[in-house]
Design goal:
homodimer; alpha+beta; Aminopeptidase; Alpha-Beta Plaits; 2 domains; 13 helices
Chain lengths: ~450, ~450
Amino acid sequence: MNNVNQYIEENKERFLEELFSLLRIPSISSDSTHKNDMIKCAERWKELLIEAGADTCEIMPTDGNPVVYAEKKISEDLPTILIYGHYDVMPTDPNELWETAAFEPVIKDGKIWGRGADDDKGQSFMHAKAFEFMVRKGCLPCNVKFMLEGEEEIGSESLYGFCEENKSRLKADVILVSDTSMLAADMPSITTGLRGLGYVEVKVRSANRDLHSGLYGGAVANPINVLCQMIARLTDADNRITIPDFYKEVLVISDEERALMAQAPFSAENYKKELKINDLHGEKGYSTPERTGIRPSLDVCGIWGGYQGEGAKTVIPSEASAKISFRLVPNQDFNVITDRFYAYFKSLAPSSVTVEVKPLHGGYAYVCPIDLPAYKAAEKAYMETYGKRPVPVRSGGSIPIIAGFDRILGIKSVLMGFGLGSDAIHSPNENYPLEQFFNGIKTIPYFYKEFAAANKK
Amino acid sequence: MNNVNQYIEENKERFLEELFSLLRIPSISSDSTHKNDMIKCAERWKELLIEAGADTCEIMPTDGNPVVYAEKKISEDLPTILIYGHYDVMPTDPNELWETAAFEPVIKDGKIWGRGADDDKGQSFMHAKAFEFMVRKGCLPCNVKFMLEGEEEIGSESLYGFCEENKSRLKADVILVSDTSMLAADMPSITTGLRGLGYVEVKVRSANRDLHSGLYGGAVANPINVLCQMIARLTDADNRITIPDFYKEVLVISDEERALMAQAPFSAENYKKELKINDLHGEKGYSTPERTGIRPSLDVCGIWGGYQGEGAKTVIPSEASAKISFRLVPNQDFNVITDRFYAYFKSLAPSSVTVEVKPLHGGYAYVCPIDLPAYKAAEKAYMETYGKRPVPVRSGGSIPIIAGFDRILGIKSVLMGFGLGSDAIHSPNENYPLEQFFNGIKTIPYFYKEFAAANKK
């Protein structure tokens, strides 16, 4: 394992060129006009995994975008690691805020810039290169499977069925995932909790056409005003969510565990400075890390209606829409929450409008026990690279399929993320520091080594 | 005057061809990419007014779009009528709802279809053709001035200065305007009141970039949620506007006058059926005609922020915006109201966000006394065409410059509109019935005759 640094040094230009070939493909899963780019990206991954040393690699069809699946089997006697990642990326808007083109990756200021640089092309590609190193140097200590999907950013809908149908093929001792962040470049951490997710699109309709706001203003329900009033009533003055029974199943964290979590370093000043905000904002009675780690949240991710162009148009639009997401914590079922939202949201509508609610996707929350042997192996691997023990962190983000793996395949996942809070994933100017990219490639083989040692059959 | 019907019959194909040449020019004043179309439209109007019989016609520059100004002077001893209209039109979005192209006018089902067919190219062109008839038949009984502006839909900003600078040139005994509607095709009415208008654009900002709604959701102010909460607080459960002192100067209408107004025919059932709405919606304690006629209103004309594309993007946007309009009644000053809105809106913002308010335009309300000789002349003119006395109506709409004419030029306006509620002005599928168009051309010369008789010098 000791010559991994040298291997990276000798091959880093090629590593980046290969990664760039993935980043250049605009594999935006939420936009159906990019269907062909999904296929192109899957095919490029297949080439790269074969080159890296996989025995076999297939592009396996699903109901949606295909799964790239590869294997390298050494021996029945060795444990098996299943690497999970995704080759789809988020949309790029608002496009005018990108300083470099989203799909023309560049190296600048020691970072890789472009959509997917971190999430998740950059992070999952570290696994391909760590794997390549172990294969070429003859030190691969485990069997390896790769499963890369193309729908993570839209809810992994097809992957649930894919797992159901391929249970035996996907058999493994652990699932290893790099799709999360560390607390800081010098503060390694492992994500042990992920929030669940509910996502709906709502529409409020009033008259059958746009109306002149002078002739009708004051006498006809304005769907924008009404939608705003309905959204406003989803939370109260303490920023608690008002949907009846929303918090009913929320896992209550003991005061003891909250005190432990509070030991993780957090600076409100730095947080505010980094985001350029004047003040924090969230549920009364909880700290910022608690608000994202152990409490559910409700965010309007998009809203639109009426005239959005230059200048003034005096109109009452016939409809207004919004996209609303929930982040859920362990024990909250996104289907139940979506149903409760639906009933409550409809009840908020005055009789002068009609309301539509369309669920878009959802997923369960996940918790990784920190006494899991695989977790311990990850801990040791980070210590090799960073010289300090990683902090276990409950992230506010969601990777719904991780809970699905647990439920369907009965395999726990370990989330060895190397992203940073400043990587601007899902935003313009997504980036990934070269240092994190190379540290990831360096750390992963240590996980293999520790995991193999702990799982001798 | 009696042969106006015959003149229309003989020339109607040409009238429509000429009107279409105006309708084909996309003179959208709120969109600066249409700057050249404004000039083209002004030039076409100049040609048409000269052809119709004007002695002179000039395209007069202003700080914004030019004014088309024409004159026909017969004698110092005769009264002068100043025709006011506008050659600019509203934007066309949502474009997908137009059944025919907005700027490719057609005749279908007895109506003219296209942006501007009614508002205001169709209506102002009736004056050109009525004028042409009187000139060619030698029966023009007044001096005539035409003033057509290109900024009515964006607040007539340049026309105020134009009036100040051209006071003596614009001298007239009355201003005649066709830019309003009748109650129904068989129920002539004259608009005697117009609401004033305030229009602002607001923006709420939170973090310096779009954020991942999982990693930050619950811990950072979401500008969409906050904007919705702020908008919701602009009105109360009785649909009254909550801005402090908003109603302070509102002209209180006596119970007696309200009882008189209530005699005008109004069917809530038809109103709901026509707009396909389940219920009325407005300020408690007032009828629908009162809500638009004598009460101010607040409408969000547009809202936008975050992800509006297909599917789900889990993002907390960095900002959200809205366009908000007020319709104001006599005695409310739009500058004062805008200031009060500004102070109140800012006070609603939590410390976690910043707020911008940009006033876009405004105008005063207007009332035309029904004992004005010019009003009486208009009344008689409608009676000639429709065989019944027109009903005086306070419209909910605004033509801010009408109050400006009164203030700057000291001239009252008479609003002889021939539009119908079904003309979909400001909406997709704007239209203007041929019957209204030709009835307008027929009625206008009678106004000239009656007005000349009442104003013998």
